[in-house]
Amino acid sequence: MTLLSIRNLSVQYHNANESIPALKGVGFEMQAGEKLAVVGESGSGKSTLALTIGNLLPAQASVDGSIDWPGLDGIPKNGRDVGFIFQDPGGSLDPLAHVGTQIAAVAQYHLHLTRWQAREQAQLLLANVGLDPQSGFFDAYPHQLSGGQRQRVAIACAIAARPKLLIADEATSALDTLIQADILLLIAKLVADTDLALLFITHDLALASEMGDRMAVFQSGKLVEIGSIAAVVGNPGTPYVKRLIASHIGLLSPPLVTSA
Amino acid sequence: MILNLVRTPEGFVGTILLGLLTVWALVAPWAYPGDPLSIAGPALLPPWTDWSLPLGTDRLGRNIAAGLMYGARTSMIVGLAAAGTAILLGLLVGVAAGFIGGVVDETLMRITDAFQTVPGFLLALAFVSVVGPSLPVVVLAIALGTWPPPARIARAEVLSLRERDFVAAARSIGMRPVEIAFREVLPNALPPVLALSSVIVAAAILIEAALSFLGLGDPNRVTWGGMISEGRTVLRTAPWLSIFPGIALVTAVLGVYLTGEGVVEAHARREMLL
Amino acid sequence: MNRTLTLVRRRLLTALPVLLIVVCATFLLLEAAPGDAVDAYILSSGGGDAELIAKLRIEWGLDQSAVSRLGVYVWSLLHGDLGWSVLFGRPISSVILERLPTTLLLMTGAIALSFFLGTSLGIVAGARPGSIQDRLLSIGSLILYAIPGFWLGLVLAIIFAVHLRWLPSAGIESIASGKHGMARVLDIARHLVLPVVSLGMIYLALYIRMMRTGMAEAWRQDFVRGLRARGLPRAIIVRRIVRNALLPLVTMLGVQCAAMLGGSVVIESVFAVPGFGRLAHEAVSARDTPLLLGVILSSAVLVILVNLVVDAVYAWLDPRIGSTGASA
């Protein structure tokens, strides 16, 4: 069943002197429970895509085209239907409120729970994301947690209202390598357990291959190629994607700089 | 730069008000030559009755319009001089504290704290009453109460600039610390302090008015505060004596403040376009 | 709680040297002024012969060196003895204690008015930046900020006391009215309305502007996007923004206290309120330097105390202050 259908989406940012296009005529579909990895370099528009889907663009942006949700009835609501994780782990958390309270607030509002029920939900979610409630994480403040812990809280907030789609925008780019792996495992587990659809946005080709069933490659605001991982990585259709894959530096790549 | 300033709404209104005020102050000796404290007509003449005395006269028959113009001179001189002194003093203390650090920094900061703990107006009051009211004393008294904020800002700037690469570079080519402090660090610490300057000028004008109101201004000069105080005794019958100088004060402070905000806005806009 | 207490202790440690500096400065100024405490006492108690003067000097330790005189001064300060007022013919401390409560009442009223009304209006303006209410409040607060408090007092007195006769124009209560209990409280309250409004106006304007700017900036903060990404309603988002924007304003309360003390001098003069501020003016007029310096010293102590309380409250409100940081 098609969950999300994007057609001819164009986004422009306007300032006093000019209009800068961020997305140009982007179109693709996502099925329920599918994992789509969006890959692109800086300025390719991939973050704009996430913000546009969530109606989180600043006031100076204009949107053309359509975003339809055939899989949902009614207008999609952030939190209830779509969950977001952003790059800056602490950035989406209110510095003055307990971490547990922030998770509970999402559950309480969208699931129409009482405060007590929401608290219980929040404890469960904390456990789900690997933060043991017995260790007092519920009453912790964001600044008392490490980056990885804060990102776990952000994930808990994102899935608290049981959305159908989880959008992770460079969710692990600001974390250390080992922590990165933990968070990715967590996301993969949560997606598998609850049949969530995942839109995984990253600049890292290797991560994209790990996390997605399909891959979409963006360049300068345009969607240049989309297909299964095997198809895109193994047999890239466009010259840009060919170059992208060729220049990927992994542990097994030959050294760039050789001694004379 | 001036053009950019005038393009902002705040700067536009501010410069008009300030411009009016400056003209007002400068024109005084030509519009009303002679001593503004001398008697010009019958006492308590209401405004708009005699065109040579457009705003009426006070209890002694002195020309109120002349008083307003000469008072503008006092307010502007005191405002600018006091703010200048406060900023200079603040810069010296702030740069020294931030640059030298250690015990010097601690001592200077405690002294700054001490000056901020005593209410600025009380300090000014005490200073003027001990030394005697005259224009330079009033300027110094106001500066004594308003120099701590520029000092703190200057120090904060210096602390963050000290670690920057260009200071290390200067040190590595052998510049002496004093040279570095004044040629490299000070000019960069200046902008945030200057951003505060319009607030200080406005505050200085208001403090001077309050001091004059209490009878502690320079007795040989016309001051708006003094005029308001004079008008108190006839508040019921001739309220315009106190009202006009007050309006002048509001206009002056608004002008200064708006111009300051306009400069900040114009600067911000310029940064955005770059 | 621990966090707040350690912070208060640290603040106290830095406050003590500051107080010492103020005490030393007052001492130096006292020394610079002509005459000493004995002269002041003799002057106001109707004179005395040289023998009595010499005896008092020895008794009060004023014949010793400057350093030991400083010691005597500090010692007497610790005992609450601020010296003798020529103007009143009484110990300075008793004069101050008599006048202080009135001014404290005035200041509390002004601070409360400006803070609560100012932040409320600032929230109204900042909830929708760029709206009509935002623009109106912005312009209004700017004009208010430029109005001198004493002139505003006079204008308000003309309108409300002279023309409308709704409120009294001077004093702290109706003289010899013999009112007690609630009636007296109301009488004092009526007399306080105009002075409190005049004193608090400038900070009212400041709080409106600060709150408005704080909220406009808070809207741009990252966590707001996080809240919107979670689909939380506008009401909840505004509430969280207000809490974040309110914090810097709390720190202003300490600064405002010092400013209100200074402002009370003029306002109490305008409205003939027998308070601490007017005491300073009277001391200046009568050239009673010890009294003036006693006023300054007590002001400094008051400001330090208020700042301590404000710092403690701020630390309690903001969990980031004094915290040890990220746990394992």
Helical segment count of chain B: 12
For the record, the count of structural domains of chain B works out to 1
CATH class of the domain at 1-76 and 205-253 in chain A: Alpha Beta
Coarse morphology of chain A: globular
Q: Give the fraction of residues assigned to helices of chain A.
A: 25-40%
Q: How many H/I helical runs of chain A?
A: 8
Order of helices and strands of chain A: EEEHEEHHHEHEHEEHH
SS content category of chain B: mainly alpha
Oligomeric form: heterotrimer
Mean pLDDT of chain A: 88
> What portion of residues of chain A belong to β-strands?
25-35%
Written as H for each helix and E for each strand, in order along the chain, the element string of chain B is HHHHHHHHHHHH
Number of β-strand runs of chain B: 0
Report on this model:
The complex is a heterotrimer of chains A (260), B (274) and C (328). In chain A, 33% of the residues lie in helices and 26% in strands. Chain A is α/β, with parallel strands linked by helices and 260 residues long. Chain A has a domain at 1-76 and 205-253: Rossmann fold, CATH 3.40.50.300. Chain A has a 6-stranded mixed β-sheet with strand order 5-6-7-3-8-9, sandwiched between helices. The radius of gyration of chain A is 19 Å and the shape is globular. Chain B is mostly helical. In chain B, α2 (9-31) crosses α12. With 328 residues, chain C is mainly α.
Would you spell out the secondary-structure blueprint of this structure?
The complex is a heterotrimer of chains A (260), B (274) and C (328).
Chain A: E1 2-14, E2 19-31, E3 35-40, H1 46-53, E4 61-68, E5 82-85, H2 99-111, H3 115-128, H4 147-159, E6 165-169, H5 177-194, E7 197-202, H6 205-211, E8 214-219, E9 222-228, H7 229-234, H8 239-246
Parallel strand pairs in A: 3-7, 3-8, 5-6, 6-7
Antiparallel strand pairs in A: 1-2, 1-4, 8-9
Chain B: H1 2-7, H2 9-31, H3 64-100, H4 102-117, H5 120-131, H6 135-146, H7 148-162, H8 165-172, H9 177-195, H10 197-213, H11 224-231, H12 240-273
Helix pairs in contact in B: 2-3, 2-12, 3-4, 3-6, 3-7, 3-9, 3-10, 5-6, 6-10, 7-9, 8-9, 10-11, 10-12, 11-12
Chain C: H1 2-32, H2 37-44, H3 50-59, H4 66-78, E1 84-85, E2 90-91, H5 92-127, H6 132-146, H7 149-163, H8 181-219, H9 222-229, H10 234-270, H11 276-285, H12 289-317
Antiparallel strand pairs in C: 1-2
